[in-house]
Design a protein that fits this description.
mainly alpha; 3 helices
Length: 76
């Protein structure tokens, strides 16, 4: 029961505070307004997801291994 109380305290109070604090410190170190840091982060995440769905899918190690096996398979 005490562990549940501890986890809930961390999840409810300390985690959001640390995310806000980290964003504020990053904005201060980059000399940018804090909302701009949030929107830039959202843009970067969107770009990474787009890359993973387009090019990253074709670079999957399992898919590349299948392609290599198909190329080196003797012609019958």
């Amino acid at each position: 029961m005490i562990a549940l109380l501890l986890y809930r305290t961390v999840a409810d109070h300390l985690l959001p505070w640390s995310v806000k604090f980290g964003a504020r410190m990053l904005a201060r170190s980059l000399n940018m307004p804090e909302p701009l840091v949030h929107s830039t982060g959202d843009y970067v995440i969107a770009q990474v997801v787009t890359f993973e769905h387009s090019v990253g899918r074709s670079l999957c190690p399992f898919r590349l291994a299948c392609l290599l096996r198909a190329w080196w398979r003797p012609l019958s």
